[in-house]
Amino acid sequence: MNISIVTIGKLKEKYLKQGIDEYLKRLSAYAKIEVIELPDEKAPENLSETEMEQVKEKEGERILSKISDDTHVIALAIEGKMKSSEQLAKDLDQLATYGKSKIAFVIGGSLGLSHTVMKRANDKLSFSKMTFPHQLMRLILVEQVYRAFRINRGEPYHK
């Protein structure tokens, strides 16, 4: 399975990088995984609704340029469906079973994802009704994907 994490914004915090690197290393035994970091759109603090949409659209174009037509796209979005770790594991297992070998998880910038990206997404996944920094979501996501592979293989880790 080929998994991409397409994300807006550079990861600056060393502790998050270390955690993500650890899970990426562990995941490499189960799947080919890559993180694609795209620059966020520079914008002033106080944006109008129209300006926010323009920023999201520009970031969305960057995201979609990195996703091929045969990729199953899972957008991380607050309005997405919340799932248990076991359900995510089952979903990933079913995608593999039905020949979906390319999966892209998409994490938007601080304003979220554009309508275009949301329309392209095959699934929308929410980790919580709470808002998390998108850098922290990367760490949570790679840990959950790792956990899913462990669950699917019946290996110890999941509690």
Automatic annotation (TrEMBL):
InterPro entries: Alpha/beta_knot_MTases, RlmH-like, tRNA_m1G_MTases_N. Keywords: Cytoplasm, Methyltransferase, rRNA processing, S-adenosyl-L-methionine, Transferase. It is found in: Cytoplasm. It is an enzyme of class 2 (transferase). GO terms for cellular component: cytoplasm. S-adenosyl-L-methionine binds at L76, G108, F127, S128, K129, M130, T131, F132. GO terms for molecular function: rRNA (pseudouridine-N3-)-methyltransferase activity. Its main location: cytoplasm. Its EC number is 2.1.1.177. It catalyses: pseudouridine(1915) in 23S rRNA + S-adenosyl-L-methionine = N(3)-methylpseudouridine(1915) in 23S rRNA + S-adenosyl-L-homocysteine + H(+). PANTHER family: METHYLTRANSFERASE, RIBOSOMAL RNA LARGE SUBUNIT METHYLTRANSFERASE H. Homodimer. Specifically methylates the pseudouridine at position 1915 (m3Psi1915) in 23S rRNA. Belongs to the RNA methyltransferase RlmH family. This is Ribosomal RNA large subunit methyltransferase H.
